[in-house]
């Protein structure tokens, strides 16, 4: 059994009776963990075992495709159990073999074995044991599925007792594993214990039992004459303080199924001691990340083959998962593995001088600063003496973002940062690099959108001009590469991936003069191609150093076989300014990561930088083990590296709260290292985000001068997040002052962002009648929950909805370049995610043509996830409608709404252009029409619109836009899919049009009556000559205009 994956569908529910005791409720919760686990295993079965019979299908009514991380994690779990069972089945023995699956859930292990290993399974008894309620349901499935029961001989369905099903090959027992006496009696009824060789498997099952009961079960199994015990369950290698562990434990606590065993036995060594103390003489235990790289478990070809199944780039998260699960095999007959595991020392083993660090934590404002796999860069400040640092692009809370978070030590005196005059800027991406190239700025290289969509473009950020310039494209697109500044404006790039299955095997150098040039190598001795390696260049020691030459070190990275490399190489390059640069590699060594307890440069996904003349390695993952806190940051002096080659010492520090150093951005600035962002999906347990940045002041023990410098005022000022600048929102204008702008130049006003704490403050905003973005409000769990899979599961994939299907990315209501089509909700979401030009504006589920949309009535299964914040009481009290909006890559036409409304952005991001009501005369609105045919996204620079007053809005998940009535607006999604809830409300006491107003955009009653009056007036002039008629109608028009001002 296993904890439920968020948004997972339960294929079958265990019945619950009223008036349950606490123990019964706990048992039901434990049984419930099985449902999500088998859905995940079914996902793996469908994708990774296409040529095998599928047995999970009979227990999972509706399959769901899990994420690549979940699929690979469950594949590894299934492979681990299969590996142990296969060894047992193929082992020669004169005894009857019995495989007992403890807490089996709906796992079809017996059928898988009989199908995969028919010869080895001959004569073997497979016994499934779990709660009787659950086993009764499994009995029914087996009884009704010919594909399952046809593989069994002498099948007998039993209605009473603990034995529920028996056959020649397979039995089902409904037993409480805490009742050992009854368990032994029941097993004795079906096999002769003295003449049998047993294999017990427990895959994330007995960990839910009270630890004392689980220990008693393990001890009882050892008393059998010939027994082997296979345990797969959770670990806490860094105890509960590690962010992954904290997320995992909170998840199971929330389910009501707390993990008992890993609290008492948190490490591999503790589990080893556990089994030995309970009588098992032979114990072999490894975490799943170590098992992944073990040649006796998987060979390289098997690991490489997995990449052909689906794109995968979640290596850090996969490693975190693997380090928090173990596979243990105990044997009371074998003479192998009789030496106990010693607990790893958490002290640095190399005896080098240990650095120590002061850490200052600065918490982010709500929902700000949170991004991963971004890249740091130095920014220009308008204020003299003020340093600014940016964290650019990367993965945001819900999607990739092109914005830049700005950090400063002077928050109160912060001078606003802006890209002045950029006509273009880099698109959103992740896993890219940004390398400082001196006063010239920084070079951005590559990155990706998805693992199979790498990016070829490169950009220079001109620091003193605050502009981005696109420069030479890469010879081959790549991401997860490594880059360093060689000096003189030259940047070297090594490795990376061009697709999820293709590693780039070259070394290239960029310069402004020469573009990209490939390096040659005159030796076969070189590191194999990797991604995410630690690459540093040694600083120039003196001006006499050979011009055009550099050297440094490269270590770690993940190779094509999916393993973190432990090799450390020195590299040197000569004549990098020439047309044929040559790089030479020298192998320095391959220290064991496990022996060093992670204190090594050989990592994957770490931030490598030079700080105060030392190599600093921040975070990432290593081979086999989880990095302990003491070694998450390590350093080496250049002298030690050049002399010893492999020296690396830990950086002692105290983080509070402890960060997750995965996907972070780290940069050196003076005495400080600033760590920004960072996050990881913690398998199926939720996503952990670092909620602040860290300022580290590094000192060296025994160096009093360094210590004094480290405590001066400048170095102790913490860096803080101060602002997010979104590149997509930058005005595309020339770098001239506003006063000198030509009449045709549009200046986009930015709609202000504010935080409010009461309904009184919102009422003041209503009175002001100006658009405003409200941030930091609580609109419910929808911002986290409303993924496509969740929506399909809750709303129903087969529910029919009417959507706009556009022929162009710019929908036009006047020309009707779209059609209203009916689609199944699941198909609609799938097509949107694939880039189809579709748009949903929900209608009333009862009477679409008569009643306004109401998310509570129309989508009851998800409506509780969304809520109007208490600060918007006026909206709630006067609500007219609340349509759900889901958009693919299509732009909404320019229009206005008669009612005021709030647009609550739930998932994805969106860009809107707004115009005040007074601009209506510039957009050719037909009389009585509320929509314009002008595409302002493309035509805003047209001279005919030069006198308009455009306002720009960029909405992120959780943002709420207040849009006053009659403000013209159009929207364009800036992510692959945008999900929002729009709440219209009556902000006028009277005057609305009489009768039905389904969409909330019928013009006011006075306007409709006025149009009728105009028709009458015009008709009264029909008998007059045209020039006379025109004269007097123009005078009336002028009189109308005078009354309008």
Automatic annotation (TrEMBL):
**What region holds the JmjC domain?**
857-1002
Example GO molecular function term? tRNA methyltransferase activity
Q: State the Gene Ontology BP annotations.
A: tRNA methylation; wybutosine biosynthetic process
Q: Where is this region: Disordered?
A: 1-34
Which reaction is recorded as catalysed by this protein? 7-[(3S)-(3-amino-3-methoxycarbonyl)propyl]wyosine(37) in tRNA(Phe) + S-adenosyl-L-methionine + CO2 = wybutosine(37) in tRNA(Phe) + S-adenosyl-L-homocysteine + 2 H(+); 7-[(3S)-3-amino-3-carboxypropyl]wyosine(37) in tRNA(Phe) + S-adenosyl-L-methionine = 7-[(3S)-(3-amino-3-methoxycarbonyl)propyl]wyosine(37) in tRNA(Phe) + S-adenosyl-L-homocysteine
Recorded metabolic or biological pathway in which this protein acts: tRNA modification; wybutosine-tRNA(Phe) biosynthesis
Lineage here is: Eukaryota, Fungi, Dikarya, Ascomycota, Pezizomycotina
EC number(s) given by UniProt:
2.1.1.290, 2.3.1.231
Q: InterPro entries, from UniProt?
A: Cupin_8, JmjC_dom, Kelch-typ_b-propeller, Ppm1/Ppm2/Tcmp, SAM-dependent_MTases_sf
Q: What does this protein do?
A: Probable S-adenosyl-L-methionine-dependent methyltransferase that acts as a component of the wybutosine biosynthesis pathway. Wybutosine is a hyper modified guanosine with a tricyclic base found at the 3'-position adjacent to the anticodon of eukaryotic phenylalanine tRNA. May methylate the carboxyl group of leucine residues to form alpha-leucine ester residues.
Q: What's this protein's name? A: tRNA wybutosine-synthesizing protein 4
Source species: Botrytis galanthina
The family this protein is said to belong to = Belongs to the methyltransferase superfamily. LCMT family.
What are the UniProt keywords, alphabetically? Methyltransferase, S-adenosyl-L-methionine, Transferase, tRNA processing
PROSITE patterns noted in UniProt: JMJC
